[in-house]
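Below is a filled-in request sheet from our internal design queue. Each sheet records the structural input a requester submitted and the sequence that came back. We keep these sheets so that new team members can see what a complete request looks like end to end.

REQUESTER: design group, bay 2
PRIORITY: normal
MODE: inverse folding
CHAIN LENGTH: 432
BACKBONE (tokenized):
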């Protein structure tokens, strides 16, 4: 029986999205673990002149076609199984609408701003945005046009930093939980929009890439031409809520403080958009205006207000996902992992069952410091700044509590004085 590197030997690979987060890790993994692979072709820009049917039928003698989707393309269901669900719309009709509708009308109908969630067209049904809607359509494009092809559909959940392959903590963007931890660790995010009990399902990018490679190998040796679907998700392996994630993040950043923080990290979570809006003004907007004013006065470029705007828009756009939980079944994914041969040590995934969540997010935070923020490994100065802000935060809290008690006390005294005056006037009027 051929191992995974033997399967890829002399095989030509065509990769779309090779410059993306998963794509980069996939290419690195294949080149490192499958050194005898044939040619790798990377599509960097779309090409015209051929329709979808012609482009797919050009792929003759194709050992396997792997399509990367997302588990959230079926987020209108609370339980997501590893099957292809009925389409939310006919992809042919949608393509026809898009190609024959004025670009400005499409732009108006596409919800891009935080306040346009009420403008989502009925065509999306119960799906929250066009991203998951088009991902859902794409599954059916692959299924319908690749009817006689060996197809694999991989549905990752939230893909984040590497666990350990090729090294721990590598990441190239601020998307997902790691970005939230960094923003809260710097004191930029003080309030988060979402439910504290929402389960955050994530998959490390190195695990996701291994699943892609294993699924391709398994499908190529299978005689079943029905599309294979794998939910690359944590499922019930390691469940973590939004509150627990932020608590771990605050604990991690207390032990490994971030540089250039604005205040001591602390995050309040609410799923009430009205409370979020006013709290955001108090804790995000006003400090951002003050900081940017100081930067402008010092002759530097203001940036915090722009960052807070992006955070606000992202929070509103992701509210549906931050306030709901799904049971993402991954039985087939776990079965797939068990099919790996003992000789394929580079593709073993036994550690998926016992990942230490705190240790992982500590590694992910440190990785973000190095690969995203380009901060030095020595945290001595950052710890001094953190200690300084800790004391400032504690003093401010004491001052606020004393001020509130003083206001309450004096308001009670004033109430007693007012009551006495009213009683005195009443007695005079009644002649008492």
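RETURNED SEQUENCE:
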């Amino acid at each position: 029986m051929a191992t995974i590197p033997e399967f890829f030997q002399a095989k030509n690979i065509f990769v779309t999205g090779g410059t993306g987060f998963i794509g980069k890790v996939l290419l690195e993994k294949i080149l490192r673990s499958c050194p005898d692979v044939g040619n790798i072709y990377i599509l960097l820009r779309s090409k015209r002149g051929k329709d979808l049917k012609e482009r797919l039928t050009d792929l003759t003698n194709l050992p396997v076609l792997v399509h990367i989707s997302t588990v959230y393309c079926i987020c209108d269901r609370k339980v997501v199984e590893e099957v292809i669900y009925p389409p939310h719309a006919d992809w042919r009709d949608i393509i026809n609408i898009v190609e024959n509708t004025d670009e400005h009308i499409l732009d108006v109908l596409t919800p891009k701003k935080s306040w346009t969630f009420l403008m989502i067209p009925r065509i999306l049904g119960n799906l929250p945005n066009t991203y998951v809607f088009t991902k859902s359509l794409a599954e059916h494009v692959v299924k319908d046009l690749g009817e006689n092809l060996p197809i694999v559909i991989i549905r990752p959940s939230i893909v984040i930093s590497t666990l350990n392959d090729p090294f721990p903590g590598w990441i190239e963007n601020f998307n997902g939980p790691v970005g939230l931890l960094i923003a809260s660790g710097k004191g930029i995010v003080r309030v988060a929009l979402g439910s504290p009990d929402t389960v955050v399902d994530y998959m490390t990018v190195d695990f996701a890439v291994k699943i892609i490679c294993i699924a391709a190998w398994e499908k190529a040796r299978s005689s079943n031409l029905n599309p294979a679907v794998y939910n690359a998700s944590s499922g019930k392996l390691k469940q973590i809520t939004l509150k627990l994630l932020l608590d771990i993040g605050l604990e991690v950043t207390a032990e490994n403080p971030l540089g250039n923080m604005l205040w001591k990290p602390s995050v309040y979570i609410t799923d009430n958009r009205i409370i979020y809006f006013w709290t955001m003004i108090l804790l995000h907007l006003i400090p951002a205006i003050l900081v940017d004013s100081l930067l402008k006065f010092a002759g530097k470029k203001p940036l915090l207000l722009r960052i807070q705007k992006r955070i606000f828009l992202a929070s509103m756009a992701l509210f549906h996902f931050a306030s709901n939980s799904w049971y993402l079944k991954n039985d087939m994914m776990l079965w797939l992992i068990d099919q790996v041969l003992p000789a394929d040590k580079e593709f073993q995934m036994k550690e998926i069952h016992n990942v230490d969540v705190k240790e992982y997010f500590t590694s992910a935070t440190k990785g973000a410091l190095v690969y995203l923020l380009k901060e030095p490994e020595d945290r001595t100065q950052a710890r001094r700044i953190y200690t300084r802000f800790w004391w400032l935060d504690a003093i401010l809290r004491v001052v606020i509590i004393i001020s509130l008690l003083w206001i309450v006390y004096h308001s009670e005294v004033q109430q007693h004085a007012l009551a006495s005056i009213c009683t005195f006037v009443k007695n005079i009027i009644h002649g008492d």
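SHEET NOTES:
- The longest strand covers residues 151-156.
- The radius of gyration is 27 Å.
FILED BY: M.R.
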